[in-house]
Design a protein that fits this description.
Elements lengths: L1 H21 L5 H22 L4 H30 L13 E4 L3 E2 L2 E2 L1 H13 L8 E4 L10 H11 L7 E4 L5 H14 L8 E6 L3 H8 L4 E6 L5 H23 L3
Parallel strand pairs: 1-4, 1-6, 4-5, 6-7
Antiparallel strand pairs: 2-3
Length: 252
């Protein structure tokens, strides 16, 4: 009875944490995970109530086996995300740089997009001639395209507008690369020429898989350090493991 009570208490706590996270921008995915954990704890509590029955004992064993398999799979996927979360040293030889778009608040770069733009600015500081492709269309709540927002930000920070090419049709990472490759072809770059892509560190591995070429070199953008930003990073890293799993299941 005590174990069952503890399980119900834990389920209630997870439900509250889930609702709290869902109300906080940037960590809503964590809220979904807490709610999934709530459901799991409720099932365990119900099985505990009938623990004297053979079917309940087997049910707990099967459920625990699935949980263990899930944790192993998550650990593997998260290791891929973490191992890829750095700038590729080959990026220094890139012939072009593509900045992958992220959210725009009206006409202002979001936190994620701001970090990518700053990373791009740092990367091109000693590369005065490399062309820059700002890749991203216009989504809900955005008054301008992500490409225009990025280009305007770079120009405001001293980048020569003649170096900037705007790709404003894409709505996904796949399209970011597909449409950017069209621009690179127009610039006279061959398919095998090295190019850099700028995105957040947790997104490097998956974006590289989507690019589908060894010529793509990731440049990692990171968030400033603070308790809130660290919580955001943790949320994004966990979410990215699930997104990576879905990508691999689709055969990428």
């Amino acid at each position: 009875m005590k174990r069952q009570k503890r399980l119900w208490t834990a389920a209630a706590a997870c439900a509250v944490l889930g609702a709290t996270c869902r109300a906080v921008p940037g960590v809503r995915f964590a809220g979904l995970l807490f709610w999934c954990l709530t459901a799991l704890l409720i099932v365990f509590a119900m099985l505990e109530q009938y623990k004297e029955h053979a079917w309940a004992k087997w049910g707990k064993r099967v459920l625990l086996a699935f949980v263990c398999l899930g944790l192993v799979a998550f650990g593997y996927l998260e290791s891929l995300v973490i191992r890829g979360a750095h700038t590729d040293g080959r990026a220094e030889d890139a012939q072009c740089v593509v900045i992958l778009g992220a959210g725009v608040n009206g006409t202002t770069p979001s936190l994620m997009l701001s970090s990518r733009l700053q990373a791009a600015l740092d990367f091109i500081a000693d590369k005065p001639d490399i062309p820059i492709i700002c890749s991203g269309g216009q989504g809900p709540g955005e008054d301008i395209s992500e490409a225009d927002c990025m280009a305007d930000w770079l120009i405001a920070h001293g980048v020569d507008e003649s170096r900037i090419y705007r790709e404003d049709r894409s709505t996904s990472t796949q399209e970011n690369f597909a449409y950017s490759e069209e621009i690179m072809a127009e610039l006279g770059l061959d398919a095998g020429d090295m190019f850099a892509f700028v995105t957040n560190d947790y997104h490097i591995f998956r974006a590289g898989r989507i690019a589908g070429t060894d010529a793509a070199c990731g440049v990692a953008a990171t968030l400033p350090r603070s308790a809130y930003y660290d919580a955001l990073q943790l949320n994004y890293y966990v979410r990215e493991a699930f997104a990576t799993g879905w990508l691999l299941l689709r055969g990428n």
